[in-house]
């Protein structure tokens, strides 16, 4: 059973009531799906299967939780009661029997095998092009280098400049931001260039 030492450390830091729950869930997941890979995501223990999230477990002050990534397709009857799908777990007795739990893990893995492992997200239509504030449009018309950079940016980068300038309430603030924007655009910089290499 390949394990991730980060999950060992996570379990060791939890309250005494939670440790046996997390260890039991972990053992059942591995028993039902030997190919599962342990990892940490968002500070919580995850189980991945063939590159797709399969399940997550966590511990809190007064309860633990366990649930499947495709919670809509692997029903347990406790949905909506806590972060996971088995309600608020305060002892191993709150979980279904090992055979039932392992069957649910295998069902979740079967969804991945059938190509249904990923959660389908709604496709959002692209946002319309941002309206260029008149002050910025005027400044760009007078500066070919800044205009070339601005027009060469993808819509999201142009939007950052337009919204930053458009949010200014006072004309003095707008004028100051336009001047800063033109200076950055002349250098080929995006609005948030300082954070791009962090």
Main features:
elongated; four-stranded antiparallel β-sheet; 12% strand
Structure commentary:
With 198 residues, the protein is of the alpha+beta class. Helix content is 42%, strand content 12%. The chain is built from seven helices and four strands, in the order H-H-E-E-E-E-H-H-H-H-H. The chain has helices at residues 5-12, 18-32, 98-113, 134-141, 144-152, 155-166, 171-186; strands at 37-41, 44-49, 52-59, 64-68. A four-stranded antiparallel β-sheet has the order 1-2-3-4. A hairpin with a 4-residue loop joins strand 3 and strand 4. Helix 5 (144-152) crosses helix 7 (171-186) and helix 6 runs antiparallel to helix 7 (171-186). The longest helix is centred in the middle third of the chain and has 16 residues, at 98-113. The radius of gyration is 26 Å and the shape is elongated. It starts with a helix and ends in a 12-residue tail after the last helix. The relative contact order is 0.10. The mean pLDDT is 87.
A few lines on this structure:
The chain is an alpha+beta fold.
Q: Helices, strands, pairings?
A:
Blueprint: H1 5-12, H2 18-32, E1 37-41, E2 44-49, E3 52-59, E4 64-68, H3 98-113, H4 134-141, H5 144-152, H6 155-166, H7 171-186
Antiparallel strand pairs: 1-2, 2-3, 3-4
Total count of helical runs of at least 4 residues? 7
- The number of distinct β-strands equals 4
Rounded to an integer, what's the Rg over CA atoms?
A: 26 Å
Task: Tell me, briefly, the overall form.
Answer: elongated
Strand order of the largest sheet: 1-2-3-4
The structural class is: alpha+beta
The major pleated sheet works out as:
4 strands, antiparallel
Low-confidence stretches: none
Percent in strands: 5-15%
Query: What is the H/E order?
Result: HHEEEEHHHHH
Helical proportion? 40-55%
Report, as a whole number of angstroms, the end-to-end distance.
36 Å
What's the rounded overall pLDDT mean?
Answer: 87
